[in-house]
Design a protein that fits this description.
Blueprint: E1 6-9, E2 11-17, E3 20-28, H1 32-45, E4 51-58, E5 64-68, H2 78-87, E6 93-100, H3 107-125, E7 127-129, E8 132-141, H4 143-156, E9 159-165, E10 169-176, H5 180-191, E11 198-208, E12 211-216, E13 219-224
Antiparallel strand pairs: 1-7, 2-3, 3-6, 4-5, 4-6, 8-10, 8-11, 9-10, 11-12, 12-13
Helix pairs in contact: 2-3, 4-5
């Protein structure tokens, strides 16, 4: 997976140039339809504004991109906004900058600077996370082994995202990919036998405000860090 960043909590920002107001809003989006709905909502909220310029990036590797100048001179609005998103390595994100015209023409250079400044101010207000490659899987151990394995997980920073207490203990676990060799050797050492992690799959993982964030084929999943 490419190294991408995601919007956890959207943000707003504003920039003023020669009485023209540039009001930005950033939101996470999962599809082009969500981005279109965001734009429609913004047009209703700011129905008296002159322009609603937008850019979005969607896809696991940020492979789908779009920008719109919405009546501003070509390349002076949408492209600068998109460049701000690209500079932050964002994906699944849409940013709209609404302009209230102040009566003075800003020229192409002034427009590029203003839309860029509004977009940057908006990003600075948002919570953005940059997940790292991780591996998830399942492990089954006996009850007599579970306490030892828990201590190992805590020592090595392995996250438990679910547990099934049946005849044995089966746990769903996640760890940053660079920890895998140490985790497997640690399990073999404490269990005195090879303990394969089943259903191994790649994902991306980050931590924010005592929350574990998993980005995978199912989208964004959240788990309390205290589930260790």
């Amino acid at each position: 997976m490419a190294s991408m960043s995601y919007v956890l909590t959207g943000g707003t920002g504003e920039y003023t140039e020669k009485k023209s107001r540039f009001i930005g809003e950033l939101r996470p989006v999962e599809s082009q339809d969500e981005a279109a709905a965001f734009l429609q909502e913004t047009r209703k909220v700011h129905h008296d504004a002159r322009h609603h310029c937008m850019a979005w990036i969607i896809g696991e590797n940020g492979q789908t991109k779009h920008s719109s100048d919405d009546g501003e001179p070509s390349g002076t609005a949408g492209r600068p906004i998109l460049s701000v998103l690209e500079g932050a390595s964002l994906t699944n994100a849409a940013l709209i900058v609404t302009r209230y015209f102040g009566g003075t023409l800003l020229g192409t250079g002034g427009l590029v600077r203003s839309y860029t400044a509004a977009a940057q101010a908006t990003l600075s207000d948002a919570e953005i996370v940059s997940p790292r490659p991780a591996l998830c899987g399942r492990l089954t151990v006996s009850y007599s082994q579970w306490q030892i394995v828990q201590a190992l997980f805590k020592k090595q920073g392995v996250f438990v995202t679910g547990a099934d207490y049946g005849a044995d203990v089966t746990v769903s676990i996640c760890a940053y990919i660079e920890q895998e060799p140490l985790l497997l050797s640690g399990l073999e050492s404490v269990l005195k036998t090879a303990a394969p992690v089943r259903d191994r799959r790649l994902c991306q993982m980050a931590e924010s405000n005592e929350t574990l964030l998993l980005f995978n084929d199912e989208g964004l999943q959240r788990f309390p860090v205290t589930s260790l």
